[in-house]
Write a structure and sequence with these properties.
three-stranded antiparallel β-sheet, 15 helices, hydrolase, 6-hairpin_glycosidase_sf, 6hp_glycosidase-like_sf, glycosidase
Length: about 425
């Protein structure tokens, strides 16, 4: 299957390549997305390590002066094809922004992990192009931004918009959004519905609040220290990926001969992992999100709460594995890993992050399983990814009960991550 997967995935990634970066999908997502590019580079390294480096170089070059890596880097020629676009964000008017048109929000920090994996795919080419020497200081600045501008007394980074979680309409955000009285009701632009079924996407009511929050953040010059921001949450996956990327930064620093910085990054990772303990819910058997405005934990089982499995020496590994294998996520009995608890009244087989299974989170879980010594389950998950990707033309996500495709097709991270696991786990 690996040869077939390589050929098919390469076709998708070639089709979505735009010269210096890869779009997530040609119609629905016409720009460069932050954590998408990191996931895409993980697969591109098997096709062309140099192109994978260029993918990450392109994203890192859009970094703001304050260190943030923006959620989206816009192709202004396609501004009308996605909302909100560059005209909405007007990033060129914000003092801290970069010279290119970007969103002001961020996405989960999986970038250092991607940079390390891309370097390891061809260390000689990486050294020749001084890839790590360019990427490392930018990644350090990105993590410093999270620590200095987004982290409070708990030691965890907060998100200021559901989009920053990468899991836009998770049940985690229901109560915090419901508590908001402000929204946009009239003329909510939805170009996404030209490319995907409305039943697969967030609702207009959700989008109205998304756009209000984004506009308010923009109008405050994307000020992360705005105490009156109506949306501030701590998300387990965001912080677990930050901790995991600190470990990757430690390995990168060691390659560059900076042992002192490597030790500091490992200490940072331990501190974030320790802080994550405050999001553990013993009754649910997984991590949950916290609304910083109400102080309440958002008590839902979601795939975000499983992502801390990526962290070594995690105190709750056994409990998380039990939750993953049990009735709530049914590993090995359904397609991939559902984004939400199969038994919950809020579960939806079709709508975005309220139930469907995604390939990027399946990749994260497979990585965690493999590293924790559960190779057979990791390989089974990798084989599922390959089979579903090839059968359904690389869908954005799938129905966990039937495996039927949802969202858009020819999705880049589906191709990239299915290829990665097919090569690495399928070859054993």
């Amino acid at each position: 299957m690996t040869a077939t997967m390589r050929a098919a995935a390469t076709r998708v990634l070639e089709r979505n390549w735009r010269g210096t970066y890869t779009v997530p999908a040609g119609g629905l997502y016409p720009h460069q997305w932050s954590w998408d590019s990191a996931f895409i580079a993980v697969g591109l390294r098997h096709i062309s390590p140099r192109r994978a480096q260029i993918e990450l170089d392109s994203l890192l070059s859009a970094q703001w002066h304050d260190g943030r890596l923006p959620q989206i880097v816009f192709n202004r020629e396609r501004d009308d094809d996605y909302s909100p676009g560059g005209d909405f964000w007007r990033s060129e008017t914000i003092p801290e922004s970069s010279a290119v048109s970007t969103a002001g929000l961020v996405q989960p920090p999986n970038h250092a992990l991607a940079v390390l994996l891309v370097h390891e795919a061809d260390p000689a080419e990486s050294r020749r192009r001084r890839f790590l020497q360019r990427a490392y200081p930018r990644l350090v600045a990105w993590h410093h931004y999270l620590r200095s501008r987004r982290t409070g007394p708990s030691g965890l980074a907060r998100i200021v918009h559901p989009w920053e979680s990468g899991m836009d309409n998770s049940p985690y955000w229901d109560a915090p959004l419901a508590a908001m009285t402000e929204t946009i009701v009239d003329d909510v632009p939805r170009p996404d519905l030209q490319h995907a079924d409305a039943s697969h996407r967030p609702s207009n009511a959700e989008y109205g609040k998304y756009l209000y929050l984004a506009g308010r953040y923009r109008d405050h010059d994307c000020d992360d220290l705005d105490a009156l921001s109506p949306y501030q949450l701590e998300d387990p996956a965001f912080n677990a990926l930050w901790a995991r990327s600190e470990l990757a930064l430690a390995d990168i620093a060691a390659v560059l001969g900076d042992d002192a910085s490597a030790a500091e990054h490992r200490e940072n990772a331990e501190q974030i992992a320790h802080a994550l303990e405050s999001l553990w819910d013993e009754g649910l058997g997984c991590f949950v999100a916290r609304d910083l405005l109400s102080g309440r934990l958002q008590r839902f089982r979601t795939v975000s709460g499983l992502v801390p499995l990526l962290l070594p020496d995690l105190a709750h590994t056994d409990a998380l594995l039990q939750t993953l294998r049990g009735e709530h996520f049914a590993l090995g009995q359904v397609a991939l890993v559902p984004s939400h608890d199969l038994t919950a009244p809020t579960f939806d087989t079709a709508r975005y992050w309220r139930g469907p299974s995604w390939f990027n989170t399946a990749w994260l879980v497979a990585e965690a399983l493999d590293e924790r010594g559960h190779g057979s389950e990791a390989r089974a998950l990798a084989e599922q990814m390959s089979s579903l990707a090839l059968t359904h033309d690389f869908p954005e996500y799938v129905d966990p009960h039937t495996g039927a495709p949802r969202g858009t097709l020819d999705f880049s991270w589906t191709a990239a991550l299915s290829l990665d696991l097919s090569i690495r786990l399928g070859a054993r």
